[in-house]
């Protein structure tokens, strides 16, 4: 039987609609809207599309969107000065520096310069540490947070399930593993040096593929009825000068085996932006000393 498709677009719409309702309440309580600043350095076309989508989604949710589009050759000191200015701006609740940054800029230094209370990407070491110790007030990276939302919607409780996360990045793999551990899963983080990866993946009730390699995870690596979350967004040649998007999972074969699976596009990607809005709303509530909206 073919796997159920996990519809990330629909789930993201639900989250965005709930955020928009809560923005109205926030506006009534404070007389202002939550504000998100995006910072884009350079002209990477995919990054430019993502930042535009984030700005549009922010406005559609009723929040203020401020975008800073900077030249690729901006110096690190100038970028740090902008972050400092945004940290001190009372109208800005969330700061997002789009990654990747050009090679001459130290991304870790820029991320560490963001006020952790405005770090709606959840990449600051303070927020990474809070997530690791299970602190309730961590701001959690948007992509893994979106994956967790989809998993809980699909499976309900995750307690006791075997989860394999393929990929160990600070942005997806590691925070994903922490979130799954927080849900009482038995978590394995696999990566390029893992021995016999297919055998490791075959044990899993939950597979999160975040490795950045087109269609690497094959259908016969999966336990039947596994829930598969594909974080990969890889543009590959589709012939005749065209390209198409594929994930890190070989979808056609995987869906014959899995219990449920996210498609690419239309799976995890839209959840990343929905969770960014959620984090901005939460950051704004905390900055105003208001109770956080329940259930988001
Ligand atoms: N500062 C950050 N930089 C980056 C992040 C991030 O969370 N914060 N994540 C990625 C890119 N990203 C958001 O920035 C992102 C990627 C993909 C999607 C998305 O909706 N994808 C669609 C397909 C879009 C397409 O056609 O190209 C989908 O999967 O359906 C949203 C956001 C790296 N940088």
Automatic annotation (TrEMBL):
PROSITE patterns per UniProt: THF_DHG_CYH_1 (PS00766), THF_DHG_CYH_2 (PS00767)
Domain Tetrahydrofolate dehydrogenase/cyclohydrolase NAD(P)-binding span(s) in chain numbering: 141-287
Annotated keywords: Amino-acid biosynthesis, Histidine biosynthesis, Hydrolase, Methionine biosynthesis, Multifunctional enzyme, NADP, One-carbon metabolism, Oxidoreductase, Purine biosynthesis
Subunit-structure text: Homodimer.
Organism placement in taxonomy: Bacteria, Pseudomonadati, Pseudomonadota, Alphaproteobacteria, Sphingomonadales
Catalytic activity entry: (6R)-5,10-methenyltetrahydrofolate + H2O = (6R)-10-formyltetrahydrofolate + H(+); (6R)-5,10-methylene-5,6,7,8-tetrahydrofolate + NADP(+) = (6R)-5,10-methenyltetrahydrofolate + NADPH
All copies of domain Tetrahydrofolate dehydrogenase/cyclohydrolase catalytic, residue ranges: 6-121
Protein name as annotated: Bifunctional protein FolD
UniProt similarity note: Belongs to the tetrahydrofolate dehydrogenase/cyclohydrolase family.
Record InterPro entries: Aminoacid_DH-like_N_sf, NAD(P)-bd_dom_sf, THF_DH/CycHdrlase, THF_DH/CycHdrlase_cat_dom, THF_DH/CycHdrlase_CS, THF_DH/CycHdrlase_NAD-bd_dom
Protein's pathway: One-carbon metabolism; tetrahydrofolate interconversion
Role noted for this protein: Catalyzes the oxidation of 5,10-methylenetetrahydrofolate to 5,10-methenyltetrahydrofolate and then the hydrolysis of 5,10-methenyltetrahydrofolate to 10-formyltetrahydrofolate.
Gene, per the UniProt record: folD
Molecular-function GO terms, alphabetical: methenyltetrahydrofolate cyclohydrolase activity; methylenetetrahydrofolate dehydrogenase (NADP+) activity
Residues annotated as binding NADP(+): 167-169, 233
EC number: 1.5.1.5, 3.5.4.9
């Amino acid at each position: 039987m073919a796997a159920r498709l996990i519809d990330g677009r629909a789930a993201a719409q639900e989250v965005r609609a709930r955020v928009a309702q809560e923005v109205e309440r926030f506006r009534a309580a404070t007389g202002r809207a939550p504000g998100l600043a995006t910072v884009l350095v350079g002209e990477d076309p995919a990054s430019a599309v993502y930042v535009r989508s984030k700005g549009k989604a922010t406005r559609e949710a009723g929040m203020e969107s401020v975008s800073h589009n900077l030249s690729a050759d901006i110096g690190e000191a100038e970028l740090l000065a902008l972050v400092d200015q945004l940290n001190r701006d009372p109208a800005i609740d969330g700061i997002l520096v789009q990654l990747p940054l050009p090679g001459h800029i130290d991304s870790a230094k820029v991320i560490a310069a963001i006020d952790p209370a405005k770090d709606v990407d959840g990449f600051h070491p303070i927020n990474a540490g809070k997530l690791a110790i299970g602190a309730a007030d961590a701001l959690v990276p948007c992509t893994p947070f979106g994956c967790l939302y989809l998993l809980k919607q699909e499976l309900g409780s995750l307690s006791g399930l075997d989860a394999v996360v393929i990929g160990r990045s600070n942005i997806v793999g590691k925070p994903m593993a922490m979130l799954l551990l927080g849900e009482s899963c038995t978590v394995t983080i696999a990566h390029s040096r893992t021995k016999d990866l297919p055998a490791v993946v075959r044990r899993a009730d939950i597979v999160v593929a975040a490795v950045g390699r087109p269609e690497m995870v094959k259908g016969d690596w999966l336990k039947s009825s596994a829930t598969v979350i594909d974080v990969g967004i890889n543009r590959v040649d589709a012939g005749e000068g065209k390209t198409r998007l594929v994930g890190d999972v070989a979808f056609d074969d995987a869906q014959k085996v899995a219990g449920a699976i996210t498609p690419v596009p239309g799976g995890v990607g839209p959840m990343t932006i929905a969770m960014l809005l959620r984090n901005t709303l939460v950051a704004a509530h905390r900055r105003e000393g208001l109770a956080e909206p329940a259930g988001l």
